[in-house]
Each structure stands twice: as C-alpha cells, then as structure tokens.
Amino acid sequence: MKELIEKIIALKSNKNSNRIGYISSFTPEEILYAAELCPCLINGDNITSYPKAQTYLHRNICSYILSCLEQGFNDNSIKGIIIGHTCDAARRLYDVWKHYISTKFTYFLDVPRTVTPVSIKYFENQLVDLIASIESVYSIKITKEKLIAAIDLCNASRKLLQEFFHLRSKYALDIKESENIDIFKSSVSGNKHEFNKQMVNLLNTSKKLVTTDKSNSQNIVVCGSFFDAREIVDIIEKHGVKVICEDTELGISNFEKLLKFDNGNIIGSIAKHYLNKIICSRIINTEKRFKHLYNLITSYNVKGVVYYSLKFCDNNLMDYAYIKNELDKRSIPILFIEGERNTVNIEQIKTRLGAFLEGLFLF
Amino acid sequence: MITIGIDSGSLTTKGVVLKENKIQGFLVIKTGGDNQKSALNLYKQLLKKTQIQEKDISLILATGYGRENIPFSNSSITEITCHAMGMRFTLPEVKTILDIGGQDSKTIHVDEFGRSSDFIMNDKCAAGTGRFLEVLANALGVKLEQLGKLSEQSLSEIKISNMCTVFAESEVISLVAKGTPIQDIINGVHNAIAERSMTLLNRLGVSQPVAMSGGVAFNTGVVKSLEKMLQQKIFIPENPQIIGALGAAVIAQKKAN
Question: Which of A59, A41, A100, A257 is closest to A165 using CA atoms?
C-alpha cells in the first residue's frame, strides 16, 4: 500500500507542458480541463523562504500568498495563472504577478463574497468571461461536450476521494495524515486521469487490508486558513490522535459533493457548485461555515477542534471569534494556533498542541 | 511507589521525588547551556538527597521546554498539563494559574480533576517574564532577590512605557541617569509585568481563586502589583518554582497506578 501511496503523491510534482496554475479553489478545474489544459493548484509547496516575494510584497501579507508568489518566480513550468479574488492579499498577488512574472496568460477571477441567486449569476458571467479569454489566448474552443467530459473527470476524482475518506474514517489504514494531504494535492496537480487510475488501485488494495473498525478512534478536526503543515499533523498523530479531516482550503469541502449540472446551463451549474463550497471565511456566512464544521464534529465523533490561522489572515481571525463562541456553547474544546506557511514556530506549536491533546485524551 | 518529575526550563531545572503521593525531596539548579547534562545532574543529586535507589523508581516524567531531550525519562508531558496537576495537588481549590517563568508566561484554567481545561501562552516575547526582571535587575545593579523588598519602599508611581525588554532596559538606564529613585523604577517594572500578565488573564478569563507559579512568584513586588490590578488575593504555594516538576511526578503516580 505504501508504494501505491507514494506513486499517487509523486503525481503532484507533475510539470506537464500544458500546465496552467490557479490560486484559490473557487477556480473551476472543469473549465481548464475542457480547454485541454492541465490545471494545477499553486500552493507554494516546499517553499520555506520568500526572498523574492518579500521584495515585491509588504511584510504583513500572509505567508501562503508569499509562498505562491515565490513559486511563481521560481517555477518556469507555470505558463498561465488564474488568481481568484479571495482576499486583498490575493489581489496584491495578481498585481505583482502581472507586472513581474511573464506568464502567457495571467487572469484575475472575481469571486463574489455572498451566495445568492444574483451573486451566482454574477459568478457565472465571470466564468463566461474566463472561458472567452482562455479560448482567445490558447486558440481553443471550449464546447459543451468538453465541459461535460471535464465534469465527469472531476466528479470521478471527487467520488474516489469521498470513498477513501469514508474508508479512512471508519477503519485503521496504514496512511499518515500528511500523506493524505499530499494525495489531495496530487488530485489537483493537472493529472486527473492518472490520479483516478491510481486511486482505484489504492482503494482496491485498502479494502482488502482493512481489519479493524476504528470507530472508537480519538478524533479531531483541523479548520481555519490554508493548511498543509505536515509537522502539525505528525505531532497530533504522535499523541495517538486521528485528524479525521481538514475543513480548510485543501480539505473535505473540495470533494464532499459532486458537481450536478443542468444541461441547459452548464456554466451556471459550475458557478453554483463552486460558490457553494464551504471553504473560506472570505464568504460572508460564518453561520453556514460553522454548521458545516459542527456537522463534521457530530458525524465523526470529534472531540476537539484545532483552528489554524495563518498570520495576517484577517478573515479567519474574525471568524474564529464566532466559531469559538459557538463551540464553547456546545462544550467542544478548540485550540487556536497562529502560524506561518512553513511553521517556523513549531516548538511553540508543539507545546500548545501537546497541552490541548493531553487535556482531551490523557486522563 | 516512587516517581520523579523533572521540569527542564530555560533558566532552571527542577526535580521532585514523590513516594505514595508525598514529596520526599526536591531540587532546583541552573540549566546552563546543556539541558540534558543539567537534568542528569539534578537526577543524581535528587537520588542522593532523598536516599532513593534508582531501581525503586517506577516512572520518571519530564516536562518543560527541554522535556524531549532527557533520555533517561520514561515519557514527557507539556508543562501546561503539569502545572495544572501540580497546583491541584498543592492548592486544590485554585481554579486559575498564572505561571511566569524564565522566558514565557501562561495562564491556565484548572478543573476539579487537575486537568488544564483552557490556557493561553505568551512565549513569543520575553517582556513580562523572568528574563525581563533579570535584564532590568542587572541594569540597576541589584540582585533579583532584592527586587521585592526594594519596590516596597517606592514613594512615587512611574510608568515603564516600553513593552520590549531591550528598549525597557534603555528606558530604565535613562531613568537612573535622571536621578529617579531605584525603588520607584523597580516598582514601575513590577507594574509593567503585572500589566502584561493581566492581558493574558483577561483574555482567558479569571475564575477564582487565582494562584501563581514559577520563579517570579517569589517576587513579592510583582505579586502585590498583580493583586492590586486583579483586586483579589493571589495564592502562592510554598515552592512555586517546582509546581511543574511536582505535577509531572503526580501524573507519573497516576500513570504507574
């Protein structure tokens, strides 16, 4: 099984020549696959310092944006980029990218902050504009048939990830949470056909290997800003606790629902699906975000929540106050950790995490 | 059953020997530059002091920043959990702990089982910690142990406006140069620490009674400043410095049982 996991994780290093990067998971991969491109979520993976990015962006910008910009400077294989207007820092990222990094296609995708029929229509129009730009720059026609095929492809990935999640939540599988996060990253690295194929193999193997019902495992959920900190999930697992899922940018919201489309309005269906994803605190509906989190807590016997906020991520800092209040009312412990993209303060985090988990599970 | 708790801190290493939940002996030594060496040193001294044989020890638990660098310990636990348990053992009625150590400070809520139910740490900045007092005592040319008594002689309130230890040191030197009485300066320093601690306490919320642990609890001036701002008495255990190590030893008793 380890070999299969490694094979899937290796896919995230894909440097396909048709690669188009995107920042923010509000960007519909389906449109990019329909354009016969390889959409790749840019997330500053393995970037540990940002000397170039900090030359162009001010210091109090979150380290996730800094790492994406640093990757932009260093990775020549990114030929096109779509930056979603998720926050002010993303807006600044677009400004710098447009002027200082020469990509064939640099696009700023506006994303509404509310989810209403009007905003969904607005987002649909934004996607129509995006399609027109892609068609123009890449000299390609994005047809209805190609979109449907792309939706099928992406939904197939979602189904596989769902199945894997359910298997992991119910049984003890020999996979670390850090590997699980990498598996998701591989799913958004522009190689979905191969990813789907390998995931089928992994699922088939996993099903044969499960022996213990782990419904009594000690579970926590991680939520908050962009999160992929291996060291943190490793510390949690070292305490014998399971991270049942992440309710973050790279987390469960990306695959828990399939994209259902109306044949008469495919773009509208895509807009509706992506806007309704419960990911980011930049969407003005913290109550909905909390309900989603609480549903995970009650469904998976979660004993505590780790709220990880990247420094300078004001949206998440504001949301935390509401979420903590609601969890306190329900006597669900929550630990707030403020960190950087590359967890420079890991020793301090270790003490806080350790104390939190000891409080939950030691006695 | 004999257990040992070792708290490996930034400035001092503390150890407590517990036998059937009774303290047999304890020690505090300077950590220095090698926490593993100082922990081992402490351990040997403790055995000698309490006349306990190594073979009779059931469990050794380590805590503090250096907890994972003590190879002869059986396990490690965070200092937050240990302070909660140690304070419960010493002053069972206490509900909130303020621990001001060498380089960090924390507030902890303790439940009726001695567990930490919530906490807040400040370990990003030395201001408001033992290090702050050390630097300023040095700048004033007085010993740490003298600070409490000297601040009692203060006649005027002065404010140390700088939050940063480094800049506060400069500010103190300027005050000395202006002829400000040293007692007033020290009282101002104590108030500055109390203000920083109040921020932590208010963020977490205060459930009475409140107790202090850590070496700074020996400083009667800081305690008085805090009591004035908190408007309530703060309980100080007999040996506030060893609460973490004591908690580790108590948890070891529970684990061994």
Answer: A257
